[in-house]
Structures are given as structure tokens and as C-alpha cells.
Amino acid sequence: MPTPRKDRPMLMGRHVEHEVVERLLARTQAGDSGVLVVRGEAGIGKTAVLQHVRASAVAAGFRVEDAAGVEAEAAFAFAGLHQLCAPLLARATELPEPQQAALGVAFGMREGAAPDRFLVGLAVLSLLAEVAEDGPLLCVVDDAQWLDQASAQVLAFVARRVAAERVVMVFALRDSGATDVEAFTGLPELHLEGLAESDARTLLATAVRTPLDDMARDRIVAEARGNPLALLELPRGAPTVRPAGGFELPEVVSVPRRVEDGFRRRAGSLPPDTQLLLVVAAAEPTGDAALLWRAAGELEIARKAAAPAEAAGLLEFGTRVRFRHPLVRSAVYRAATPPDQRRAHGALAGVTDPQVDPDRRAWHRAQSVVGTDEEAAAELERSAGRARARGGVAAAAAFLQRAAELTPEPAVRAGRALEAAHAKHGAGASEAALELLTVAATGPLDDLQQARLELLGAQIAFHLARGGEGPRMLLDAARSLAPLDPALSRDTYLEALDAALVTGGLGPGGGVRAVAEAARAAPAPPESPRPADLLLDGLVTTFMQGYAAGVPGLRRALDAFARHERDARAENDSDDRRWLWLAGRTAMAVFDDEMVHALAARHVRLAREAGALATLPAALLVQSVMLVLSGEFSRAAEQTAIAAATRTAPLLHGQLILAAWRGRPEESTEIHATMVREAAGRGRGTEDSLAQYAMAVLHNGLGDYPAAQAAATRAFESAELTHSNLAHSELIEAACRTGQPERAADALDQLCSRALASGTPWGLGLAARSRALASTGPAAEEHYREAIERLRECRMATQLARAHLVYGEWLRRQGRRQAARQQLRTAHQLLSDMGAEAFAARAARELRATGERPRSRSAQPSDALTAQELTIARLVATGATSREVGAQLFLSPRTIEAHLRSIFRKLDIGSRRQLRDLQLP
């Protein structure tokens, strides 16, 4: 590997950073992958470090591909991703057709439905892996804070799933709360600090050709704070006659801002034509020199106007137009007068081909308008439609917002502002959506638009402050919609009911029963009710007339969801994705384990296919909880890994529940503490209740029954946890073990009556086990035996294992050691095999108390596999190809093959056929 060059002034003091880079590249040459996020303030040397990465990679035989975020490009979906991938697209023909189609639609090269965001990510991952087959690949992304939202999400997703490919991904990201990109949070980071004083003085000496007295030098070094760009630029903007007095105090203006001011002053000293040319270059984000010169021709600017800008070191004109630093671009554009900005954008719009690049032309044209312009607004509205079709919700929102600003007719402007607000909320910019709602509210709006405005306001209020006024506002919107759009009104009532469940009924009039009472006024469903209509009616009946009365209606609704075939129309898919989260939880409420698994799997599949970032978190959470309860801990762990890659799922809840069932106190306590910190200042709701449920499981496993009782009591206070029946059995076991069964009497009565009404093995088994814990004598034994027989008939392996455990504990206390050993052996084996370590240890303690030494779990070949390897082995054993497994797990085929080699080695086999013959857990 090449040694770092010490003669580059911008790299002074970066030796540690160089070592990180060298190790990263060396590891990749050896067949691994690497990811690094370089963070720091503007001018601190991020771009210089990237230059070093490039140079080192080229010397080591890497192929290097670049992209850079540009502030003005943030409105264009997948613009940054296209920059990076465009030189590689010739290899896209080697990808599976669905992945080729996803890339083609995302990049505007093919017609088709909006692509699945995760399929685009998998396609990019596969594309990079294909290219890396020819040799190691370095992908460098500068100014990642300015990437468009779609590109940032996909690239961060790829960075989290790149594994066995010889690919290095390096991102430079500016430190700033306002422009930080959350998508990259959690990736390996290298944070650049200022240069040491000795390095700063050396760099200053190379930058300033005229002598500086000691006071001037000390002042510049102090004010630059080790920022290399500041050390190079501040002296150029300081009058030499006042070397120590031409700088503001450091506390007044940040160092990057002071450097930007220096660039602004330097640009302002250039001839007028040169200044205008700079403005055009700053407004044109692609760096297309031919386009720039065509725009310059529109403005009658001669090519010779470029010479002063190049001589001033502000930018370079070649086949591409490159600013010396992004701060130069921002300084030039911000310093330009509004008329000059409009002239620049107008010229660019005039020379941009409306057939090849209609969206960028529409955007430039919109920026050139003074006042309003319906034609320009309509053109932006069409651009929003194209952006939405490519999956760029954030881009569509930006186009619609500007379209609303340009619209002259008040009613049309209000309608566009309302649509822009919907798009902004869908893109995750809820505060901006509220501002647009204020514009829309100035109207005039028709009655339906006004009702939709109320609905969106309620949804945003609930999103920003869980609880509070959310459920009540949703009810108000539902009432307004009733005579105007009955179907939307019913959906809104259902949304209000769901909100009341999730928040625990916080806020005035927000209790579940109060919301159910209000929902009785919902318009009648159509002659052929949708699954969501049946679900609303079933829930209203349940909360108003009782569980037993509601079960038949809830089952009809769940059957309707299960039968509901996917329709080709996107809105029906969207409807399924929207309500499957509530349907899955309702299946838990009626103890239908097969239905929960089926609906959760379908929900995850639909959310993944649509790239639905708003619904995937709920889908993954329900599925992971059910996998844990079924004893499939390794599959639940892999779901958590996928969720971590998407950065969209409620990671901590899934992680906490899994860690609690695994019986890992330190891990559980750490996750719980993080959740408490992150929830500070927010109202309690399902998030807190799920955490309390998990801690109750942990403490019951550890045998700390007072702590389990305290946590389970808090969980049982939640409307959601009582509705889904998760908290009952934990509270009952803890209370009985502390000798206070009366503290769980309500939970026991409710659980038993619900189990009888549901009639399912899961419900009846849990109820029988709970009755046994609260009983004595022959009745207790009868209930224990019933619990085991019932739970054998369902998928709830964890609950079956715990039934054997508590029965064995009871038998030991009755002095029936031989019978106790049989139950405890079974419990110990089941719990050990699934990885429920605390409950298994509890069973082992009980076995020792009977005089029997618990057997160590028989080692299995699969024990050597990681959770991900076990998941891959299971899928390959079904006959799935590496591409198919990779698509399911969001990994490249090369990574799957690398895992398979490890799996074969650990299992001492040599083929997929042998893998199919193994009995994998």
C-alpha cells in the first residue's frame, strides 16, 4: 500500500486518518468489504481525505466511482444514486429482471410502477458486487448531507448490507444538525477534528506568501481553530495593513461561515460577466460544461469571462465545471441578487431539453419566475407525478410545494398546498407539512378538501406527539368526512381507534371505549364491506359489548384479510399495508397464532415490495414478536438485522423483546435504558408498555418475581397490551410466585373468559397454565396437564416450554421428584434448544433441587452457525438459489455464497444436497 503523502498541505495532521484508510483498503483487497463515514465541519479536510482514499485505491488497483450531493439536487429523486451508478449500468444486464426494472424506473430510463425502495437497494448492492467481481471497487460519496432522500436511504441501506463483496464505500458528511442525514447514523465513523497548532502554523506558512507578524499569525491560527480551509482562505480575505484586526471574534460567526464570506468577497471583486457566469455555474448542479456554455450564450456571456474566476481559484472549467469547494458554490449563489439568480435559472431552463430532462427544466423555470405563473406551476405538478412514479416522495413534495407558491388562482393554490402537505408528511417532513396546511387553510377549499385538511392535521398531530389531542382530532375529522366520503370516514374512525389503543387512551376523550362509542356513528359500510370495514365493526362491538360479543366479528374481519387477494391497483395494496398492522395485533387478541403468522408475513412482504417506509416498522415488529413467541429466536434475530439495515423499524423494541426472552439481563437493561432516554418528554404508550412486558419476561425468567410483577402490572395498564393479551400471563405468574395471586385476579378472570370465547389452543393453554398457578391440589395438576395438551396444538413453543417448567416446579414442591424430573427435563431441553437461557437456567436449578444433575445440551453441528448463517442454511435447504436467498435477506448472491462456504465448513459438508438432508433446528 502507498504511504500517505506528507507534502499535501490539506492532509497535514491526518496521519491517523490515513492509517484507517489504509487498513480499510487492505482488508477489501483481501476479499472483505468496508464502510466509512467521514464527518466534520465544512473545510475541516473531508474532501482532502477522500482524495487520499482515491489515490491510495487507484495505486492498489481499485476501480473508483464518485458521486457528490449538491444542495440544489436534493429535489431530484435518485439523482445522487444515478451519479454513482451511471458508469456501471452496462453490468445491470447481469442482474435479475426485477432488479433491472427497479433501477430503470428509479433512474427514469423505463416506464413502470414506483419501484420498491428495498429492491432498488438490493439491485445497487448486486450491481456493485457484479462490478467487484473484476477487481476491488471504491465508491466515494462527498457531501452526503445534500443527497436526495431516496439516494441517501438506498446508499445507507447498501452500506449496511455490503458484506463479502470487495467493495469499499466512503461517505463524507458535514456536521450540522440542520443538514445531518439520519440514514447514515450507526455506520462506522471517522470524525475529523482541527489540525494541531504546529500543523496549523506549518499550513499557514505555505498558504501566505507575504510575511506575517507574530500577532497576525497567532490571531489567524486561533480564529481558524485548526480548520485547514480557513487557514488557507482567511489570510486571503484579511487586509495586509490590518493583519490582526480584520477578523471578527470567533464566537460571532462560525469558521465555515467566515470562510464562505471570504469566498463571497473574492467572487464579488470579479468583473460583472464573470460574476454572472459564476451564478449560472452555481445554479447548475450537474457540472455539465456544455450546458453551462449554452446558458452563458443565452445571457451573451463570452467564454473569456471564465478566466478571472479560474485565476481567483474559485472553480475550474473543463469537460466538467468544478467549484474549488462546496462553500464556493453556496457563497456565490447566496451573494447573487434575486434578479441575477432568476436570470441564471431562466437561461438554464431555456437550454435544458424538455424531452431529455423535463424535471430539471421545470425546476429551473420555476426558480426564474417572479410572482406567480400557472404554466410553470402545472409543469412542476407534472414533475411531481413523475417523481412519485419513481418512488421519490420527497422530490414530489418539493415540486408540489413550489407549484403551490407559483399558483395564481387561490382555490388551485390551496389544493396544491394540501397535496404538497400530504407528500411532505409522507416523506417524513411533518413540520413542513404543517406549514403547508396553513397555506392551504387560507383557501378557498371545498368541503371535502377542508375535511381532508382536518384529517391530515390530526395525523400529523398524532405523529409528532403520540397521544395528546391526536385521537380526538381524528374523531373530529371522521365526523366531517362522514357525509362527504363515507369510506374515508370509516377509515378515519378506525385510525382513531388504533391511535387510542397505541397511546393507551391518553388525552381528553381519547380512551378506547370513548373512541369506540364515537365510532358507532360511522357511516354504514358499502354492500360489499372491505376487510377494514369488518375490522372497524368488530372492534367497536368488542369494546362496547365485551370480548365474547366481539370475537365473531373480529374473526370475520381476519378471514376477510386472509382471503383478500392482491389487486393490481396500488391503492388496494396500500389499504392492505395500512391495516394489516392492526389486523395482526387483532389476531393476537383472539389467540389465533396461525393467522398472526400469516398476516404478519404478508404485511412484511407487501411493505417490502412497495418500499413502504411508513408501514414496514409495524410489520417487522409484529412478525418478530411472533417469531420469538414461537421459539424461533434465530429468525427473529435476522429480522432485527434486516430492520437495522433499513433504519426504519422500531429496532429497540424488537431487540429488547428478543434479549428478554433469551434471558440476557445486561443487554436487556442497556436497551431499556436507551429506550427510556429516547422517550424522555414523550407520553407513555405502547412503546413503554412493550418495554415493560419485555422486562417482565426477563425477570420471570431470572426468578426475580417482585420485579416481574412490577413490570407486568405497568404493562397490564396498557390498552394495547391488554387487547393483544401479551401481559396477562406474565402478571399472573409473577403475582402467584410472590404469594399475591389476588394482585392478578382481574388478569386471570379476563384471560380465562377470553380464552373460552376464542376457543383456540393458544388461549385455552395459557388460561389453563394460569389457573394452575393460582390453584392448589388436584385442580392445579389437572390445569397443568390441560395447559400442556393445549399448547402442544399451537405454534407457541415458548409457552409450551414454560408450561412444562411451572408444572415441574409444582410437582417438586409437592414432593413428587420423579414426576418433576420428567417435566423439568423436557422444559430444560426445549428452552435450551430455542435459546431461552434464563428460563433454561431456572429449569436446571429445579432439576438440581430434585437431586438430578441437568444434562448439558447435546452439541449440534448447527450450534456453530451464527443466526444469519442458520437462516441462510434453512432457506438453502428448501432449494432456494443464492439469488433467491439474497433477495429475501437483502444480501448479494456473493455474500450468500461466502456464508455458504462458512456453513459447509462448520457443518463438515460439501454440497447443498447434504444441507437439505440435515435436520436444522
Can you characterise this structure?
This protein is mostly helical. The protein contains 46 helices and 7 strands. The strands form 2 sheets. It has a 5-stranded parallel sheet, sandwiched between helices. Strands 6-7 form a two-stranded antiparallel ribbon. A hairpin with a 3-residue loop joins strand 6 and strand 7. Helix 27 packs antiparallel against helix 28 and helix 31 (651-662) packs parallel to helix 33. It is globular and about 100 Å long. Residues 1-12, 239-253 and 565-572 have low confidence and may be disordered. It holds the Pfam family GerE. Residues 858-921 form the HTH luxR-type domain.
Topology (SSEs and partners):
Blueprint: H1 15-29, E1 34-40, H2 46-59, E2 63-68, H3 79-85, H4 97-106, H5 117-132, E3 137-142, H6 149-161, E4 167-174, E5 189-191, H7 197-207, H8 214-224, H9 228-237, H10 255-268, H11 272-283, H12 289-298, H13 306-311, E6 315-317, E7 321-323, H14 326-335, H15 338-351, H16 358-367, H17 374-389, H18 393-406, H19 410-426, H20 430-441, H21 447-464, H22 470-481, H23 486-503, H24 512-519, H25 531-545, H26 547-563, H27 570-589, H28 593-610, H29 616-629, H30 633-646, H31 651-662, H32 665-678, H33 686-702, H34 705-716, H35 719-723, H36 728-737, H37 745-758, H38 761-773, H39 777-791, H40 797-813, H41 817-834, H42 837-849, H43 867-877, H44 882-889, H45 893-907, H46 912-917
Parallel strand pairs: 1-4, 1-5, 2-3, 3-4
Antiparallel strand pairs: 6-7
Helix pairs in contact: 1-2, 3-6, 4-5, 5-6, 6-30, 7-9, 9-10, 10-14, 11-14, 11-15, 12-15, 15-16, 16-17, 17-18, 18-19, 19-20, 19-21, 20-21, 21-22, 22-23, 23-24, 23-25, 24-25, 25-26, 26-27, 27-28, 28-29, 29-30, 29-31, 30-31, 30-43, 31-32, 31-33, 32-33, 33-34, 33-36, 33-42, 34-36, 36-37, 36-38, ...
Organism: Pseudonocardia parietis
Keywords: ATP-binding, DNA-binding, Nucleotide-binding
Protein name: DNA-binding CsgD family transcriptional regulator
